[in-house]
């Protein structure tokens, strides 16, 4: 395995707008892509956590979301790309993470988190890829969850429960 | 607990992608042999990258001579994902097959990053949880 300092970063690969319309302001969107390596979940956790802290997201929900993201990225690495400690992979493909804030009419906020990979390693049928406890954890941390698997890869979309509007006085 | 502001770091510009620690620095696993127990002390993050290291140390600890219990100290772990749960489940099963059966004992106190995934997956029903290392060594129930 390559040392993590060589972890390649490819920010801003695709930049399609999210939900149409004007789109949220820059600070309300997080987007990055990681090479499929075993270190990717820890990098993803670190970036997502910092973004959530900057949004003043409630601590308990923040921990759950970071956990869910880590499980989703791990799943892409292990089952999407077939990477293991003894099979470090060929460096092909990427795991793309996008998160944005949805503000509802009453000011409550949600986060929509999307984890996309282009891995088709041996297990293209989606439910089979999400064995074990990772999916239980992701489900428990989500209000809504969809997993869309095709021959070109898998996209996981998680919508959180609501969080209060941030306190301006903080 | 620290105020959240202490942890605010700038996002966006100036991010050092080369600044991520090597995997051996994401986790620190130490084994302490005591007369009454083998304590495996874990610090850091347990995930798909680092869980194999925990597994290696636990397998060796379970092979220790004598019928001492193996205690895993998770009170300083700051992240714990499903690969860590898998290692704990395997080790608990392995412990149950040893002569002079001593269940694997986990010290977790109220450390939410560890407790949360254990509870979300129902592992709290099958793992022996204690609130600190001494309690785990004695095998006294947290009540």
UniProtKB/TrEMBL annotation, chain A:
Any Pfam family the entry gives: HATPase_c_2
Nucleotide-binding among keywords: no
| Residue segments, region Disordered | 1-26
Composition bias of kind Basic and acidic residues appears in 1-11
Residues forming the Histidine kinase/HSP90-like ATPase domain are 35-159
Q: Which UniProt keywords apply?
A: Kinase, Serine/threonine-protein kinase, Transferase
Q: Which domain of life is it from?
A: Bacteria
Which portions of this protein are annotated as coiled-coil regions? none
Keyword Transport assigned: no
Q: What is the protein name given in its UniProt record?
A: Histidine kinase/HSP90-like ATPase domain-containing protein
Which organism encodes this protein?
Pseudonocardia zijingensis
Its lineage opens with: Bacteria, Bacillati, Actinomycetota, Actinomycetes, Pseudonocardiales
UniProtKB/TrEMBL annotation, chain B:
Q: Where is the STAS domain?
A: 27-140
Name the segments for region: Disordered: 1-24
Family annotation (InterPro entries): Anti-sigma_ant, STAS_dom, STAS_dom_sf
From the record, give the transmembrane residue ranges.
none
Write down the Pfam families for this protein, in alphabetical order: STAS (PF01740)
Gene3D superfamilies, per database record: STAS domain
Would you say which domain of life the source belongs to? Answer: Bacteria
Which family, according to UniProt? Answer: Belongs to the anti-sigma-factor antagonist family.
Q: Which PANTHER family match?
A: ANTI-SIGMA FACTOR ANTAGONIST TM_1081-RELATED, ANTI-SIGMA FACTOR ANTAGONIST TM_1081-RELATED-RELATED
**Protein's recorded name:** Anti-sigma factor antagonist
Q: Which organism is it from?
A: Pseudonocardia zijingensis
